[in-house]
Design goal:
This protein is 28% helix and 32% strand. By secondary structure, the chain is α+β, with helices and mostly antiparallel strands. It has a single domain (9-152), classed as Aminopeptidase (3-Layer(aba) Sandwich), CATH 3.40.630. Strands 1-2-3-4-5-7-6 form a 7-stranded mixed beta sheet, sandwiched between helices. Strand 4 (73-81), helix 3 and strand 5 form a beta-alpha-beta unit. Helix 1 (19-30) crosses helix 2 (36-44). The two termini are 18 Å apart. The mean pLDDT is 91. Keywords: Acyltransferase, Cytoplasm, Transferase. Belongs to the acetyltransferase family. RimI subfamily. This is Ribosomal-protein-alanine acetyltransferase.
């Protein structure tokens, strides 16, 4: 894994007993997109990758990311950072490591959906070479559209 987090944070592959923290952070950041059972299914699957970033001092989970391996593609299903820890590069570190893991698995491209209103996330994804490919109208429960982004050629830089 690539990590430039400094002394405050730790990038890690979670153990099963740490999954309740993922469900809690999901509730805080995403309104409960996945349940604990959902995180357990992800953890159990050979086709799913789940990463976390925690505070070293207290062990609290502050950021998380995941993707599904579908044939030669990485479908990024999750990238979330706790409100108090945003704007510190944690999302960038997570995305960088998710893409590096996908490349290590010899996947060829990556895709994701992002809220149309989430400009900070869009800016991050564009830094990594993701391009707009389409729109899913009223995709989210509140009726907001999702933008579909793709990154081809994982082995090449942005």
């Amino acid at each position: 894994m690539v990590s430039l987090l400094g002394p405050k944070y730790d990038l890690f592959w979670p153990h099963r007993e740490e999954l309740p923290q993922f469900a809690q952070l999901d509730q805080q950041c995403l309104g409960g997109m996945w349940t604990l059972a959902g995180y357990e299914r992800e953890w159990d699957s050979d086709h799913s990758v789940l990463l976390g970033i925690r505070l070293i001092a207290r062990g609290n989970l502050v950021a998380m990311g995941a993707f599904w391996q579908i044939l030669e593609e990485a479908h990024i299903t999750l990238l979330a950072v706790a409100q108090a820890h945003r704007r510190q590069g944690l999302g960038k570190i997570l995305l960088q490591n998710l893409l590096a893991t996908a490349e290590h698995r010899q996947l060829e491209r990556a895709t994701l959906e992002v809220r149309a209103s989430n400009q900070a996330a869009m800016d991050l994804y564009h830094q990594f070479g993701f391009q707009l490919a389409g729109c899913r109208k009223r995709y989210y429960p509140d009726g907001e559209d999702a933008l579909i982004l793709w990154k081809n050629h994982l082995s090449s830089p942005a």
